[in-house]
Each structure stands twice: as C-alpha cells, then as structure tokens.
Amino acid sequence: MGSGRCAVKLTRLIPAVVVVAGLASAAGVATGLKPAQPAPAALTVRQVPVSGAVRACPPGTGGDGDRIAVFSASASASASASASASALPRGQGTAVVMPLPGKPSATITRPGTLALVAAPGTTAHRQPQAWSVTATGAMAPGLAAELADVKGQATVSCASPGSDLWFVGPGQQSGASQIQLHLMNVDVLAATVELDVITDAGPVQSGAYSGITVLPHQLVTETLSSATSGASVVAIEVRTTTGRVAAAVATSARSGPVSWLPSAASPAQTQIIPGVPPSAAPSGLLLVVPGNQNARVSLEAITAQGRYQPLGSQQIDLPGESASFVQLPALGGSAVTLVLSSNVPVTASAMVPGAGVGVFTVPAPPITEQSVIAGNVADGGLNATLSLTAPAATARVTVTETGDTGQTQSQTLTIPGGRTLNVPLTAPGRSRKPFSLVITPLAGSGPVYAARFEAQGRNMTTSIIPAISALTTITLPPARGSYAAIRP
Q1: 181: closest CA among 232, 124, 239, 119?
Q2: Which of 219, 230, 211 shows the shortest CA–CA distance to 182?
Q3: Domain coordinates in residue numbering, the chain
Q4: What is the pLDDT of residue 223?
C-alpha cells in the first residue's frame, strides 16, 4: 500500500521539476528586460455565488419505489450569515436528474421547493443504475440530493465527486456478508481509482483494488465481500490518481435490507460524530487507524445535560494500520454527539441497531452557511428528529422546514455550549407529505454540528443523515500577475 503511493508521487514530481526549471529561466529573462515592479496593493478575497453543482446518487434497492429527493436552498439562503440575497443568482436555473449513462429523466426549475424524482435502481437489463443531479443557475446554490425510499425518507446523501474518500463499516463477522462499493464518474474525463482496504486483521493486499478505470458518466461496482471475509470491521479509502469519482458503500446480510455507509471525514486527531440516537440495544464505534503508528483514543459524549465519558477514564489503544469495533454502553434516552481525541489521525463511524445490519453516522465538519437535508418524513409511524450540538461556544441557528408546495415554517434555536439539543421535526402545516430541512447558523454563532435521524416508533432507527454544508457562495483567493498561478 505504501510503495504504490510513493510511485504515484514520484511520477507527478517529474513534470513539476521541468516547470520549475522553465519558470526559473523565464524569470531570469524577465528580470533582465524590465525593472522590478512596486509592491502590489492589498489584495482582496472575493465571495461569489455558486453557479454550478453536481451530485451522484448510487443505485437504490427498492425497485420502482426508489426516489431522489432534490432541494435547492438558494431561495431561503438569504438569512445566511455569509450570503446576501443580492449575491444569489436571479432568474432561471435547472437541476437535471439523469441516469449514468443516459438521457435526462427530469428537470427541476423551482428552488426552495422539494422535488421527488423516480429513480429505479436497475436498468431494463437488471443492471445497477446510478444517477446524477446537475444544477446550474438559481438551482445550484445550496443544492442537496439524497437517495430516498417511496415515502420520501432519505437513506443516504448523494455524493459530491472527490479524490480521497473514506468509509468505515461492519464486516462479515458483524453481519455484513455483502459489501458493494459504487464508483460514479459525473465528469467528462475518465478516472483511475486505487482502493486501500483495512480490516481488524490489517491491510488487505489485492491487485484487484489497483488501477480501476471509471469512464465518464459511468458506474463501476466493486464487490468487496470475499476479500474481507472473516473481518469484523472494514475501512475503505477511495483514492483517484487521475480524475474524480463519487462513491457509496452498501452493506447487507444475505437477505434483508441494505444499510448505507455515509462518507466519513478524512483521518484527523479530533473527530466529532453527531446524531447518535438512543436504541434498545448497545451501539458500536468502528475505528480505523490508517497510519503505521499506534493510536490512543479518548471518547467523550455530549448530551442535553453536558459532557461525560461513556467509557470512564478508559482509553482505546489500537495498533497502526488496523480497524476495530468498540461496543458502547447505553448512551441515555436522547441522541448524543461523540467526540474522539487521538494522538494520531483516525476516522470512524457509529453503528446504531436498526434497519438492516445497522444505521450509521460519521464524523462531520461544522456547518458553514447552511446545511440542507432534502428527504424527511414525519408520518406513518416515522418520527424525524434534528440533533444539534455546540461543542464549544453557544450556537444559534434557524431551522426551516419546507414542503413540496413551497410552504415553510421556521424557528430560531439556541444550543448552549457543551450541549446537544434534540428537536422533533414536522412538515409545514402538519402535512403528512415529505419535507426538506435547512439549518442556518446565525451571525456570531459558535460552531454547530448536526444530523437528522428517523425512527419507527421509539427506538427503531431507520435513517441517519449527517448534516453537511450546502454552500451558496464560494471563496475566490486573490489573483495577481505571478508565476505562482502555475501548478504542476
């Protein structure tokens, strides 16, 4: 695993040396032709509206009942502390939903309104069918899309493409006899993917995980079950050496519903996992140490009453390049947020008993501008709850629910520092239809982390969606005439 990564880096350094040599020569000539220029005036960082966004949705498992929930927050994002109404796109915009590969299936043109689009999980030839959501204009800012069931309940977020993605979930010994990795390319260039897989037995060596080609607008599905048989925990790093991919991981027993693994945060020494709901049976913590140094991990829970250590003063000692399962004691009668502190970078997921082999939540960053969760249901025995945590300073947020007709309801909430606040959700006007959710931190708020979870009855968790920022603006660094603009 280490040697392959070094080879890639050396290959990339060769053109960089040539570029640097050429720039040095050019700089020498330029110096001889004209005198040095005076120091430039102060440069400014610009905030510009998001004008395009894309998401990739994995194949569903509900047959013709699969849906894609799509919502753009651009119409309601003017309350954001960092985006003004005048900065957001005006006029028309579209979000096009289409199969990978294929022709457009649906076009959405109303920001601020929930749309549910039918998205069968297989083709006419019974092959897995993935989907893309491509938004432009007024539909792009604050875009969120999720794979949802026939009721409109989101089961997993549709992913943004990237070059380094992590997933941590159960192995065969923990009930996941089937593990499928879906790689989706929504770009016009082919992507080359390398997989690094770590289990509780250590790194998995397999030539099948190297040099996987994903062509433009295509889906590639890799089955990891056989290579990880006998494992209790499986951690998967998806890296690209060329191009980008979006990814999703589905786990299941031989018979039974699929459980989706959310994409976990990159390894770090501090990880915050929001939205671990109460359950009748103990939950579990799945940990991976990707580096070769041993890890010592401390665990803290943030509840409605404050902080405490679920394991007491005990620390979790883990060897390098390993993955481990830690059973958690009962965490109380309401959702909590877990805080992991380690001497070396780690990443993780929390497994909660529920539908399928379990329901998962993962480390997430604090919300910037706002977070959008498109597919929520509070009907038919399903209860939707928003779990908000302010690990440091007091946080203040606006929570807005929007129905499929555009009707909204909002409330402003204060989360004391070092506390978790759990808020029941309802559709606007007490409607029984699905609704979207926008979480907007207010100016001066402390960092806030969140997740939405759904439960059937009191303790049967059916879905957890960690809250990820859905930006309406992006930051452009200052630009000036400089060779620093050239990158290898």
Answers
A1: 239
A2: 219
A3: 46-157, 164-473
A4: 93
Q: State the Cα–Cα distance between residues 453 and 377, nearest whole angstrom.
A: 10
Distance CA(87)–CA(78), nearest Å, equals 9
The three-state secondary structure class of 9 is helix
Q: What are the angstrom distances between the C-alpha of 459 and each of 51, 253, 355, 453, 467? A: 41, 21, 11, 11, 21
Q: Is the pLDDT of residue 27 over 60?
A: no
Question: What pLDDT, on the 0 to 100 scale, is given for residue 422?
Answer: 97
Q: How far apart are CA 268 and CA 237, in angstroms?
A: 14
Reading the block at residue 200, the tokens are 């509780």
Tokens, residue 435: 């609704």
**Residue 114 DSSP SS3:** coil
Q: Cβ distance 143 to 55 under 8 Å?
A: yes
**Mean pLDDT of the residues in the chain:** 86
DSSP 217: T
pLDDT digits (tens, 9 = 90+) for 332-346: 889 999 999 999 999
Give one DSSP letter per residue of 125-173, joined into a string.
Answer: TS-B-EEEEEEEETTSTTEEEEEE-TT--EEEEPBPPBSEEEEEEE-GG
The one-character DSSP state at 380 is T
Percent share of the chain, pLDDT over 90: 67
How far is residue 388 CA from its own chain's centroid?
Answer: 17
Comparing C-alpha atoms, which of 290, 293, 328, 288 is closest to residue 311? 328
Q: Is 408 in contact with 440 (CB distance < 8 Å)?
A: no
Q: What is the DSSP string of 280-334?
A: SS--EEEEEE-SSS-EEEEEEEE-SS-EE-TTTT--EEE-SSEEEEEEPPP--SS
Which CATH class name applies to 46-157?
mainly beta
Show contacts of 102-105: CB within 8 Å, 24+ apart: 105/131
pLDDT of res. 325: 95
* 395-403 vs 408-415, strand pairing mode: antiparallel
Give per-residue pLDDT as tens, 48-96: 888 899 999 999 987 778 999 999 997 544 344 344 444 555 568 999 9
Average pLDDT over residues 286-299: 96
Secondary structure (DSSP) of 419-444: EEEEEEE--GGG-SS-EEEEEEEPTT
Least confident of 16-20, 221-225, 242-246: 16-20
Instruction: Check: CB of residue 89 under 8 Å from CB of residue 137.
Output: yes
